[in-house]
Design goal:
Length: 147
């Protein structure tokens, strides 16, 4: 029984250290990966008929990656880019806490600009693969009233 405990502890210790090392290796260029992903998302949206209203719009310490407009609708877009799906797909990172921050920031944007259009919350998930970038546009990814 004690051997199983020691083995489990050793396995968890090694796994956590590998995970931290992996994150550190990719953190050096994670900002570049994110910036590149946002540019890809902007081009993707433009090519699909969206008008880009704002990028990296800030309110307090929160930020909206892209604010777009199409068909009389304001689209709030969160862009998530990953170099690998080892820790899950990029869109999985938009958890309840992140959605709440996006909604707070979107409300501030709409109030400051006195905008009265329908609002949609989308996620653009970008995964860097050996064959290039995989872009997934998730429309209506979440609703403001879900929180």
């Amino acid at each position: 029984m004690q051997n199983n405990y020691v083995m489990a502890f050793a396995y968890n210790y090694i796994f956590l250290n590998l995970k931290q090392a992996y994150i550190k290796l990719n953190t050096m260029n994670s900002k570049q990966i994110g910036d590149n992903g946002e540019l890809l998302a902007i081009n993707f949206l433009k090519n699909n008929g969206y008008k880009i209203v704002e990028t990296n719009w800030r309110f307090q310490r929160y930020e909206i990656d892209i604010i777009a407009f199409k068909n009389n609708e304001i689209i709030i877009v969160e862009v998530k880019t990953r170099a690998t799906d080892f820790f899950g797909s990029p869109e999985d990172a938009v958890d309840k806490r992140k959605r709440k921050k996006i909604i707070i920031t979107a409300n501030a944007f709409l109030e400051q600009r006195n905008i009265d259009f329908e609002v949609r919350f989308d996620i653009i998930s970008i995964l860097n693969t050996k064959n290039g970038n995989s872009i997934k546009h998730i429309k209506d990814a979440f609703m403001a009233f879900e929180l």
